[in-house]
Amino acid sequence: MANRKNGVEVTAAGIARFTLIVTGILMTIAFLYFIRDALLIAFAGVIFAVIISGLAATIRKYIPISRGLSIAAVGIILLITITSFGFIFGSQIAEEFEQLTEKLPQQISQLRETISGWPLGDELIGGENENGEAGVQEENETGNDMPDGAGGMAFQVGVTIVDVLTTFGLIIIIGIYFVIDPGTYKKGIALLFTKKRANRVNEALETSGNALWSWLKGQFIIMIFIGVAVTIGLMIIGVPLAMVLGIIAGISEFVPIIGPWIGAVPGILLAFSVDGQTALYTAIFYVVIQQIESNVLSPLIQQRMVHIPPAVVILSVVAFGLVFGIAGVILATPLAVIVMVLVGMFYVQDVLGKEVKIPGQNES
Questions:
Q1: For the whole model, what pTM was predicted?
Q2: Residue-level pLDDT at 363
Q3: What is d(CA 312, CA 38) in angstroms, rounded to the nearest whole number?
Q4: Which residue of 65, 147, 249, 304 has the fewest CB atoms within a 10 Å radius of its CB?
Q5: DSSP 8-state secondary structure symbol assigned to residue 170
């Protein structure tokens, strides 16, 4: 049975084929959404592999050795660097982190008590407790300041830490496999496409890796600058635990848009433990350092690395955050880099036929 509509022959076989294709696409999307957490861990492993491969390529620029030896050299250098840093600053950092976990809850409690004394303060902090006293922590039966649910909270924190460490372990293991034999995985992806498209797919994968490494180099420079600047600045202002606060600020720079401001919260809270004036100076300092990073440092670095329009960053945070949750927010920018490369190559260049500059393309 066949029909003709607008000159196009419609057959039962054609309808069945179209239905199967659409069903297959929908099932594939549903399956990918179901395993989205695993895909995100795999992408984080790719980022780790790109870092190791990029460092190894940098070594080979100056020392003529094989790829395997350069990767081994990177591993040894990283191990020596981490061990030396831990030997010099490890005890201080561990002590400051321990103090931070003790002081932050105290400062949050004091802040709640202060806010509860404001007009409408009870509503701001979530209403009154069962005894009608908003924001005031009563001692439990044992006489400690620890809340009744502290045991469950501690267990939950322990489970979260184990989960995070397990995830990091998986990321490192996956990254090691990727970096040891990347060709196998590239060939596996290329097998999903026709021979005509396989070379283009391989080129896109290579370009994506180059662009990702270029962005990571710029991001590492920014993170180190922020970490050192915040540590020195807080030491001068007189905020306690300046080194660990600098580490938090540097790491939080990896998260786009909201990361820098989240990294500033512990510093401002601890500054209140000194006095209000110190807290004010600390808040001003964080604002100034972020303005320098946003308006001076990042533009200079992006001229040589990978430029991502701010609107694209914001949209990527929202989109990947909705799909992947907090992990999607953390990895939003590197994911946006990959999307920019793939859209630029497969749509703008191949479909529209326009010549545009793609980050990482034609780089050795």
A1: 0.78
A2: 65
A3: 25
A4: 304
A5: H
